[in-house]
Amino acid sequence: MSSIGAVCEIWNFTREDDVVAAPGVECWSGRFLFDVQDLQFDMNLYGRGLMSLKPDSKVRLYATLPHTRVLGPYLRFAIWVQGCGKKCPGCMTPDAASFDGGFLVKADELAERIVNSLEIEGVTISGGEPFDQVSALTNLIHAVRARRDLGVIVYTGYTLDYLMNRNDSGEIASFFSLIDLLIDGPYVRELDDGLSLRGSSNQAVYCLSGRYAGVADQIYGRPVRKVEIHILDNELFLAGIPGSDMLNTWKERKITG
Ligand code: SF4
Predict the structure, then answer these.
(1) Which of 53, 92, 100, 138 has the fewest CB atoms within 10 Å around its CB?
(2) 56-208+217-256 has which fold?
C-alpha cells in the first residue's frame, strides 16, 4: 500500500513480511522494526511495542461498556474517550466533545477492568478522539497486553496520513505499534452510506497487524448497521454505528421518552 512507504521514511520502518490485502481493507502483516528518535521498537504480528507503564497515567473517559458485539469482530470491551475538537455535524457522541467533561480513571485500574472482562476477544477505543490521549492509552494497552492477548481497534477522527506526519515525540508510533485495526477520518454526514462499522465513506479501515486480516473484509463496509441498547448508570445508552435516521429517532425518543 502506498502509505506504508511514508511510514518507512519517517520512522525508519522495516517490514519483514508481505502486506496482506483484503478487498476494501488495507492490511499489514508481519514483524515491524522501527526507530523513533532514541526509542527502538520491535513489533511482532500483534503489535507489541516495548515500553513500560507509567503508573500515574490517567485516561479521560466518556463511557465504557464491558461487552459489545457491534464495534468490531467478536465480543469486545468498548471505551469512549472524552474530548474531541472536530465538531462534525451529526456526530453520534457530541457529549464526548468537551475536553473538561467525562471522568478521569487511572490506566492501570481501567486495564484491570478490561482484563477481568470475561470472554472478550479485544478492546475497541472510540470517542471523543483517542489520538488526543495517546500517552495514557498507550499505557493502558501496555498494561492490558501484559496480562491478556487482546486485540485493539481504534476509531480516530484524524486521517492516517495526518497522524503519520504529526510532529510528536514518538508517542503516536508507540500507540500505532499496539493497534491491530484502525478506522480513520472524521464523520462526514454527506458521505454516510449506511455501510457497517464506519460512519461515512471517507473513513478507511487499516489492519496494522495480521490479527483481523482474515475477518476485516467480511464485517466492514457491509450493507447493514447494528446497534445495541444498554443501560448504563440507569440511563439508556446506544452502542454501535447507527444510520442517521436511526440516530435521529434515538435522540428524539431519548429526549421525549
Ligand atoms: S471526530 Fe468523531 S468524535 Fe469527533 S466530532 Fe467527529 S464524529 Fe464526533
Answers:
(1) 100
(2) TIM Barrel (3.20.20)
